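Hi,

I'm pasting everything inline rather than attaching a file, because the server keeps stripping attachments. The sequence lines come first, and each chain or strand is labelled.
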Amino acid sequence: MIVAFTVNGEAVTARVAHPGSLLDVLRDELSLPGSKNACEQGECGSCSVILDGLLVCSCLVMAADVEGSSVTTVEGVAADGELHPVQEAMQRAGAVQCGFCTPGIVMAAIDLFAGSSSPSSIEIKEALAGNICRCTGYGAIVRALEGLATGGEQ
Amino acid sequence: MTTRIERRVTSPDGVIGQSPARPDAVPKLRGEFEYAQDLTADGMLWAATVRSPHARARIVSVDVAPALAVGGVHACLTADDVPGRSVFGLEHPDQPVLAGEEVRYWGEPVAIVAAEDPRTALRAASLVEVGYEPLPPLTDPAEAEARDEVFRRLRIRRGDQERRGSVVVEGEYQVGMQDQAPLGTEAGLAIPDGVGGVDLHATSQFVHIDQEQVVASLGLRPDQVRAHPTGIGGAFGAREDVNLHIHLCMLALHTGRPVKMVYPRAESFAGHVHRHPAWLRYRHEADEEGRLVRVEARVVIDGGAYASTTSAVLANSCYFAVGPYRCDSVAVDGVGVRTNNPPCGAMRGFGAVQVCFAYESQMDRLAASLSMDPLDLRELNALQSGDPMPTTGQSIDTPLPTREVIQSLRAMPLPDAVTRPHHSLLPGGSGLTTEPRHVRRGIGYALGIKNLGFSEGFDDYAQARVLLTADGAVVETAAIEVGQGLVTVLCQIARTALGINNVTVSHVDTSRIDSAGSTSASRQTQLSGGATLEAATRLRGRILSRLGGDHLDDSGVWQGEELVAPWTQIVEQEWNETVTFRHPPTSAPDENGQGVIHADFAVAGHRAVVDVDPDLGLVKVIRIDTVQDVGVALNPDSVRGQIEGGILQGVGLAVMEELILEDGVILNPTFTDYLLPTILDAPDVEALLIEQEGSWGPFGAKGVGEPPTISSPAAVVAAIRAASGKELNRIPVRPQDIAL
Amino acid sequence: MVEVNFGHIQPETVAGLRRVDELKEWEGSRIGAGVTWRRIESDGPKALAEAARTVGSPQIRNAGTIGGNLGTASPAGDGHPFLAAVDASIELVSLNSTRTLDWSEFFVGVKKTARRGDELIAAVQLPEQLPERQEFGKIGIRNAMVIATVNCVVTRGDHGRTTVALGSVAPTPIRARAAEAMISAAGMPTEADLDEFQRLVMEEVRPITDHRSTEEYRRHGAGILARRLLERCLR
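And the predicted assembly:
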């Protein structure tokens, strides 16, 4: 079947191999491999996207269900050659190692700052509780986002 | 013709000692970095693997016809289709590429399928009819040893075996099976070259050894197989062994099409090696002042069905069985057994983690027996530079600041108690199980020691090439970047040695450069960094000498204030330097386990502050302070990243990570039930680095990846013991171990 | 979707309920099946909101619904003890009929409900009056994204009427009736009453040993957790 929706501001139509997930469509049909598959069950957050304003695991969204919806992936958070303040903060803080969790963390952090310009440390951690990182121990990620919360502009 | 140019500031940015941004950070942040998972090729087929549901069974029949009958299926291969050597293996080739007569572990590959799309491949794989005659699996290590199902035995005897101490502490300890669980699962793409050869792009820690095994099993010439480094989502030891590499190449050559495979998570758990579970029996004897007189240790590790790196892991366990302490009467007996449990191999810490839990538990018990402060006991016995290794007798001739680690750790400030802690700071978290009055806080210490580089006489080397282009310098290497920051530090080393800013790293395949060795054993900065440093230094020397200058920078060669050769002129000719760097040689052990076994050592200490709800057995690791011997920190941020990440893996082993087996079958091969620490489980970490020059690594650097994982589990458990009063002889600690 | 991703099922036809607005309606004590845990976390009654906060992760809570949880009927479902503790009912609709089942009739076994194949879970109906004191707790091995080893809701209302509901200790959520009866009759409970209450809870639960925990620990944890939640209600 064909699904028509908006991705990163652009109207797209995609072939959906039913009953595949939104993550499958993003990666396989729309050449947006930024969202990652690491667990197939919404337990790691590497596939996080914003769907109709809400942060969700795209591996748990049935592709057919996004007809008419609006999706933002990591590829859509900053223009070419630019970085979103979250991305810049993470780069400065050394919060990227293997990078597999990074797009999901970026999306969760962007969602957090969309709701609150100065989240507390606890709010930062609760917002990222659905994103697993195996490399960094989360330390640099927390420092990046705490820095953004207290000092940076969003 | 020379030109007078005003001298600009020309020391490069991003040299050693700084923390320049990773060159791959932006692509990773933008989701543009290419991982093996993301690779595609025109005409690509997808592969799937048929795996054994039994831990042990005879294969009576294999019928691939039902799979081949599915539309879109291009191939279904079995053991009979392996063109070359039927087995593979890192140390001993004993593992079948595809099981032929018998399966020896749950999940062992029996057949592989290539089809037009992943779903078809999976469906076809499910239709392959394998007739199994299940056999009783051997899963008990004690029984395995009794039956002489053994990969390796190691016997260490050092010093006067009759020495006895007046204070004796005995204990038995157990370490469960941890999994590396890197976020990126196994993935790869094999592309046939049309003339009988193949290019392999697959997740790996060591492309040259993959290539060797592919060549052997495909019966090809070495020049026909090229293994390419690819983007990889973490490793931690899971990527040293071959898993899908030979399968992909077989299917690619058989079908004549590129073939891709990505393991889903459950298959990943089944498809790679795990940390060896261990059973440890110890006897520590000391004098009345607390000086260690004798240590006896019995080490059993379960290697599972195939050899993998069990031999080396066992060696590590035994050689580090005493820990960073002096002791002149030592007896260690170790065995790595073969069972029908899932194969075990490399995981960060590589055998040193398991014994550390045991010897540090022993040291705490010894301190208690002597009514001594646990750190005082450790400091009294601290192993230092110039001392002999207690197990091997090797004189430690690089810095080993054990005493400084202890003293610095002791001095680090403890966190204040929080008066009205948010629930996320309490055991139980948002589960709201626990109020402050239910909490006991415990503090625990542990030290650990690890070798750096490969040991026991292994010819450990890395090759790197530095060359010049119009845009600057390039470091060519086959060394794998798994996320640790090797790409950053190689640039820093080259910048420092060459004096120029514009340096990039180029990952090249096995046909273009010789081996960099494995990204493991905390060795890559020292080995590949060492090769890069030497190559860059030699290159600079040759350029200056040839062009008559005393200084090189991005503009070119200078003689005093004069630019004698601009960059464009320099690169009119080819400049490259290839160096194969080796660490000081090591030796195989003699019949008592003695010898110059290791290339280098690093010591680290951890202090854990853990809040425990003793009635429910729930814990919250509040903080871990650490002091680590790093030689010289070439990139402080990267070092800190390795420490924080390694510590959290140690926390995972201490309190939540374990593969649960029943008759050789993994019961929890998913992220729902194999629990990785989340951000809400992560302690605050404060790290102090001890820098002492003297190691043979570039600029005196030591590897830093493993020490954080070695003693953090022991420190966490020591803290839980202090809070709960429970003995806790196994890790991971479960709530019922504390509460019941 | 997890089952689809694992390749365990390949449904030919799927009805997506995400945008059926009626299911998202929340009127007073009637919560539409399509109401997400995120909304419940911010607007729900205290103990249900606390339970919502422990469901999965922020991503899961944005998409997961109370109806979805009911449909799955995992013994460990975090929203279920609350429904049992307040005697909620579940509204089921089909083309031709609507019926309402008490929670105890709805949950039939491990991942089994009384919902017929042609029925949709339409809403959860809570009582108009909810007990003044209500406390939730969940024992899990890590601090986020964890399946409950034991979860529990204790409520205390007028005249000391106490209800105790637990999950993960039986095939379905259960009420610890004997413990409830005993403590409800006790007036202002003493330490000895609380000890007895804890003991009765431990007796009434029927936990199993699986790869996540042991029968012994679940029994022990149920007693401790229920007691602590009751103590909170009594403050």
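The longest strand of chain C covers residues 133-139.

If the labels don't parse on your end, tell me and I'll reformat.
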